[in-house]
Amino acid sequence: MHASQGRSAGLGLALASAFAFGGSGVAAKPLIEAGLDPLHVVWLRVAGAALVMLPVAWRHRDLLRRKPALLAGFGLLAVAGVQAFYFASISRIPVGVALLIEYLAPALVLGWVRFVQRRPVTRAAALGVVLAVGGLACVVQIWSGLSFDLLGLLLALGAACCQVGYFVLSDQGGDEADPVDPLGVIAYGLLFGALVLTVVARPWGMEWSVLAGTADLDGTSAPAWLLLGWIVLIATVLAYVTGVVSVRRLSPQVAGVVACLEAVIATVLAWVLLGEHLEAPQIIGGAVVLVGAFIAQSSTPKAASAEPVAGSETNGEAGADGRAPEAELSGRRTAP
Question: Do the Cβ atoms of 49 and 232 come closer than 8 Å?
Fold first, then answer.
């Protein structure tokens, strides 16, 4: 009875995390269109979330001594890189398309596992990758010479590449005698990411007056500060925390599959709130991307074997750090 209740609670938390991550792009795009630079929006998101997570960072301050390289890499790639590329991409292409492109990350991770780590990949995982890539071709309408901004597509691909770093780094430290607490990694990742973004984004040149005004949600005005509050508190802090707790109650594989809903949620919200309508082939392609991600993520045995078979164990471990591919850091987890 208690196990069933715990699993139900975990499923609810995983759904809440997917919804929270899925709304980040929808809240960020109006701020960008109102006059904020994408990098400044990223800095506000990461710096705000880092301040909220400061008590967690203090509690796990021993990580600075134990895992400085892990924390720095996580902050650079999983936080600063993913968010910067993703927010820059949604300034040029629809939110749903940008997030779906991030679903190339599982394919890139499998490439890392197969050709860099030289570990075997299951046929199911390979099939999932093929489906995801084929679906993505439909989303971007490759037969018409790419109907979207090429730079926007490349920026979204950059976010997917940074997601690979997120997955690989999330796999570190979880199987040690004294495992690394994922909440501590998230907290310090946000702090390191904020430091990096402060140098890159130079927020002292930001149009701060935009935050005192309103932003347009497909014809409806919304306070800019309210959208920023959603991005920081809901789409970052709440999304990561609920993601972590859900993985503790569910298996990483189950939490990772539920996180696939982030792309659906982001696309629906962008459709309703931003008026970003996708054509029928793109919707079908998006569904194929999600099916491919589902197959790739669920193809890994739950129990580790002496010779691991790569499917989405990396993705599963990513979930243990707060975000399954969304896609995470999504992250998404996003995201972003």
Answer: yes
What's the sign of the alpha-carbon dihedral 203, 206, 208, 213?
negative
Q: Rounded CA gap, 291 and 136, in Å?
A: 12
The span from the CA of 238 to the CA of 84, in Å, is: 20
Cβ-count burial of 129 within 10 angstroms (0-12 exposed, 13-18 middle, 19+ buried)? buried
Where does the pLDDT of residue 67 fall: very low under 50, low under 70, confident under 90, or very high at 90 and above? Answer: confident
DSSP H helices in the chain: 2-22, 24-33, 38-52, 54-59, 63-66, 68-73, 82-90, 95-101, 105-111, 123-139, 150-170, 182-201, 224-229, 239-249, 252-259, 261-269, 280-297, 313-320
- The DSSP letter of residue 277 is P
Q: Which string of DSSP letters, residue by residue, matches 256-273?
A: HHHHTHHHHHHHHHIIII
Confidence bin at 170 (pLDDT 50/70/90): low
Q: Residue 121 phi/psi, 5° resolution? A: -120, 135
Confidence of residue 319 (pLDDT cuts 50, 70, 90): very low
The reported pLDDT for the residue numbered 158 is 92
The pLDDT value recorded for residue 225 is 94
pLDDT (mean) for 293-304: 56
